[in-house]
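Hello forum,

I keep getting stuck at the same step: I have a sequence, I want structure tokens, and every attempt I make locally crashes halfway through. Rather than fight my setup again tonight, could one of you with a working pipeline run this one for me? It's a single chain of 569 residues.
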Amino acid sequence: MKLVSFTVEKYRSITKAHKIRLGKTTIFVGPNNEGKSNILRALVAAMNILTRARRPIPLRRSQHTRFLSRRFYEWATDFPVHLQNKYPNGESVMILEFELTQEELNDFRTETGSNLSGTLPLRIALGPEETKVRVYKSGKGSKAFTAKSNRIASFVSTHLDFEHIPAVRTAQSAQRIVDEMVERELIRVEGDPEYEKALGKIEELQKPILNLLSSSIQDTLVKFLPAISDVRVQVAAEERYRALRRSCEIVIDDGTPSLLKYKGDGVQSLAALGIMRHASERGARGKNLVIAIEEPESHLHPHAIHELRDVMNELSEKHQVVLTTHCPLFVDRANVSSNIIVQDKKARPAKRIQEIRDILGVRASDNLRHAELVLLVEGNEDAVALKGLLSYASASLRSAINNGTLAIEPLGGGSNLPYKVGLIRDSLCLTHCFLDDDKSGHDSFEKSRLQGLLTDADANFSICPGMKEAELEDLYDPKIYEDVVKNTYRVTLQSPKFKTKNKWSERMREVFRQQGKRWNNQVETNLKGKISEVIASDPENALLPNKRASFDGLVSALEQRLNELAKSR
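Reply #2:
Ran it on my machine without issues. Output:
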């Protein structure tokens, strides 16, 4: 079961946000005080009232639902203040629309006696005195569904779970989650005969002490209230179970073992998030889970934010994640419409990445202003050559390069890769790399991968068959540029030194030195620049047929990523 849309009316600053589409990950972005947190909290109120009720929810408020409503909704503060005089019995309304699997549809028919076609919308209305939950359907069969609202709401609560991770994550919030998690886990052993026997022994040991206390209190009270005939001090069985479920504390050993409440804000925040993640996964028990997170970047070091983003990506593979953020790192660049812009008290899906940049105040460099995907290469010469090669190899890449959707950016050295990827991400662009197949290229990629900046899917290398190491220039046909070398440096490539299996720069160095010529960084950079211009001017004949496979792999990877971006718009 999945939550596919959410509507909120008359909740705090939100007058109406209609049918917000929810996917695997949904990100609310927007300026402060525009309502993104209020939309999330409306969802929290509705989902908690629905999923925390482990028995049918009556249309009139029972003691149970009144407690739930007051815990998650207070009419005096949550119904729009400016409407309270005009509508003294006004209601905040949330409509949750669910999509069921075929198996769940079969269960729905068995448990409710009704057939469901399409989605299942539930309307939760929260007023000053009443909480009403009903199926929000029109047309044929709507009356029958409405009559079964209690049963249907209960069905949803047993197939879906919900967790909320607030922006203020303290040791107390972590402890609360741990208590709930421990309680949930220990319930599993309470049916064990040995456990019941142990509890019986505890009750037996407690009984004479409680009887003695009862007698003592009775003797005292009878002196003042002669009509008292009996006093009993007892521990209810459920309270005894509950006490054993919730007796725990969190000790964090980061060099100095101490209780979590004595750690700093950052540690408390991460601990709360980690514990909540575990509690969410363990608590769902096969059910789909919706996880709402407010400002996950709060109190966290940048490195921890990167790690947390990876954790959230993992969670979204199994469950649904809804969050609010001011941090560009959490923006979904691959599915732009998953980012919901909240502005002027309204919510709508983003259409272009530039909208999100403007909302978050991200200033991209001029060459990245329209870019959605950035190809990072090692040097300026690589960028010049690859622009020509890619434009010739693929019509879709040529179009993307010309309209700025695909930008090619030089690193100025492989060691700059982690830094550059960070800058590109801050500009809300996706990143792909084409690196030399040598120690420097692999070391820089591995450093970026360990920092959570890149994955193996985000990089291609200039691998050449039969060579231990290779550079982009190793893919070029020497016939294309041998005249440039001869005319510029009076060096001929007709030398055995150039026919070894070493990478291009090492082979060229040996050729130059063999012929009495200098070879240093300046010469190498100058020669690469001249060669790149020749390659870009004649891309049709530039690559060796037996060594171009890694380039073709790059073309395929870039086309796939651009196709994915196009589908997400």
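Residues 53-67 have pLDDT under 50 and may be disordered. If your local run keeps crashing, start a new thread with the error log.
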